[in-house]
Design brief:
Oligomer: single chain
Number of helices: 15
Protein name: Protein regulator of cytokinesis 1b isoform X6
Keywords: Coiled coil
Largest sheet: 2 strands, antiparallel
Order of helices and strands: HHHHHHHHHHHHHEEHEEH
Number of strands: 4
Radius of gyration: 62 Å
Strand content: under 5%
Low-confidence stretches: 472-568
GO molecular function, one term: microtubule binding
Helix content: 55-70%
Organism: Pundamilia nyererei
């Protein structure tokens, strides 16, 4: 049993006891029955009124509870709708009071969540407005009085983060562009003219609007300044080239050039003005020294004629070159011609340099070919022979490659120009083929000469018995060399080729000469010391005597001269 039911039963028991006690009192007093009845009605009325009043209060509490419950439910549904949250589900089997308490607690939590979101929204809106003022962008599309959802707040946070990144990027870009703009303006000696330029250069960086249009305008301004600077540099460079030309042509002293050297480096406005003034001064001076200037230009023209490989007819086609009437018109014609030649050379510089490279390689190749046929090359030291051979082999490989590349460039040049590419009046490719053909003919000629010389030497060896020995080879004369006999005609006599008194050998040239009359050989036990090219020992005394005897015979009686034979 509940405690409330026990208390209710005790209340009923107390009421009965009180009525019994009143009845006893009334009995003792002797109150008549009608008065007892009246008094009992009074007790009943008091008790009933008290209970009714209590019931009424509880009923009123119930009504207020029901009303509060309905109000909380309505507010909870509204908050859930605003916060975009699911509606709170009521628990089954709980009392009305507990239900009202649960709903009221949930409503209080929702109210706090709403206040938190609205506070975040307000802060984000303020940040967004500041960023919009700086970036000149459109505010984020959200009403300030609406309750944002969590997703909306996350998106708003991300938007603010992106805007901050964009602000940092634009500010960095603005700072970089501003520095370059200020630098270019200083180089150009230019002051801000428009209001935009003044805002960029003079105003504080934080107060500048970093809109896309302003950044684009900054880039456009920078491009204009760059173009202006490039134009100034081009004009300065053109003036410098003109000044250098005129200095060389007019033979301006070095002191004057050095005094003007500060304007030959930088390209600011004051430098440009100084260069223009100097050009004007030199032009006036040029007119006063027109003959010397024309002669100087003619020297330049001759240099470019050589660089462009112009033929004699092409050179003579420029008739003003040979004129002696030195006037301003003649000077203008020479100026135009040198400019045309320079432009022509620059347009086809790769081709002309390729032709020059081929000629240099060809001359070097011919030099190496000539060295390759020189017998004295074997006596050098330091490995030059191997280096020259390797270089010659490399040239044999590189020359066809250069010719192939030049052929493609010449074909392109001829298609563009509509005429043949000539070097000194001759088609270059034809000239190359002729050089190779001449080289081949020369090689055949040298080969034929060597063959004839060898055949002639062989005949002389067979006729005079000349022995061929290598000068660098040592031979000990203590061992006798077996004699070789050779039949001549029908004769059966043999000529000894061993060591004899009639032999005179050159120590350094490797040449052996014999006397026309045969002499008996020396005895085998008498050896002859042979002197090598690097040796220092004197010849044997008996050998000197033999040589004197041979010399006397050669001077006195021999009608034939001994011919030297070079070792192969």
């Amino acid at each position: 049993m509940r405690k409330s039911e026990v208390l209710a039963a005790e209340s009923v028991s107390c009421l009965n006891k009180a009525l019994c006690h009143l009845k006893d009192i009334w009995e003792e007093i002797g109150i008549p029955e009608d008065q007892r009845l009246q008094r009992t009605n009074v007790v009943k009325s008091h008790i009933k009124n008290l209970l009714d009043m209590m019931i009424q209060e509880e009923e009123s509490l119930k009504k207020r509870l029901i009303l509060s419950l309905q109000t909380c439910k309505t507010e909870m549904e509204k908050l859930c709708l605003e916060l975009q949250l699911p509606v709170f589900e009521e628990e089954a089997g709980i009392s009305m009071l507990q239900q009202e308490k649960n709903i009221r607690t949930q409503v209080e939590a929702l109210i706090k969540e709403k206040a938190r979101r609205m506070q975040q929204l307000k802060a984000l809106l303020e940040q967004d407005q500041d960023l919009c003022d700086v970036l000149c962008s459109v505010p984020y599309g959200i009403a300030p009085d609406s309750v944002p959802s969590l997703e909306t707040l996350d998106n708003f946070h991300q938007h603010i983060a992106n805007q901050n990144e964009e602000r940092v990027k634009r500010h960095a870009k603005f700072t970089e562009l501003k520095k370059q703009i200020i630098l270019y303006m200083e180089e150009l000696d230019r002051v801000p003219e428009t209001s935009f330029e003044k805002d960029v250069v003079c105003e504080d960086e934080d107060s500048f609007c970093l809109s896309r249009d302003n950044i684009t305008s900054l880039k456009l301004l920078l491009c204009q300044l760059e173009e202006h600077k490039a134009e100034n540099e081009a004009m300065c460079e053109s003036h410098r080239e003109k000044i250098q030309q005129l200095w060389d042509r007019l033979q301006v002293p070095q002191e004057e050039r050095e005094a003007f050297s500060q304007h030959m480096v930088t390209s600011k406005k004051r430098n440009l003005d100084a260069l223009q003034t100097e050009v004007q001064r030199l032009e006036e001076l040029k007119l006063q020294n027109i003959r010397n200037v024309i002669d100087a230009i003619r020297s330049e023209i001759a240099v470019f004629w050589e660089k462009c490989f112009l033929s004699t007819d092409q050179r003579q086609a420029f008739t003003p070159y040979f004129s002696e009437d030195f006037t301003e018109d003649l000077l203008s014609l020479h100026d135009a011609e040198i400019q045309r030649l320079k432009q022509h050379y620059e347009d086809h510089k790769e081709l002309f340099e390729g032709v020059q490279q081929w000629e240099q390689s060809w001359r070097l190749f011919l030099e190496l070919e000539k060295k390759a046929t020189d017998p004295s090359r074997f006596t050098n030291r330091g490995g030059n022979l191997l280096k020259e051979e390797k270089q010659r082999s490399d040239l044999l490989k590189s020359l066809p490659k250069i010719e192939k590349r030049l052929k493609a460039q010449i074909d392109t040049w001829e298609q563009e120009q509509g005429r043949d590419f000539q070097v000194n009046g001759q088609k270059f490719l034809q000239y190359v083929e002729e050089q190779w053909e001449l080289h081949r003919i020369e090689k055949e000629k040298e080969k034929l000469e060597r063959h004839i010389k060898k055949s002639k030497q062989t005949e002389e060896d067979m006729l005079y018995g000349t022995a061929v020995r290598t000068p660098t080879k040592r031979r000990f004369l203590g061992t006798a060399t077996p004699n070789k006999s050779r039949k001549m005609g029908n004769a059966t006599s043999s000529i000894s080729s061993g060591t004899s008194n009639s032999t005179m050998r050159s120590v350094y040239g490797g040449t052996v000469c014999r006397s026309p009359a045969p002499r008996p050989p020396l005895s085998a036990n008498k050896t002859l010391a042979v002197r090598t090219p690097g040796g220092c020992k004197p010849p044997h005394p008996r050998l000197l005597g033999c040589n004197k005897e041979n010399e006397a015979q050669l001077k006195g009686s021999s009608p034939l001269r001994a011919r030297p034979v070079q070792g192969l």
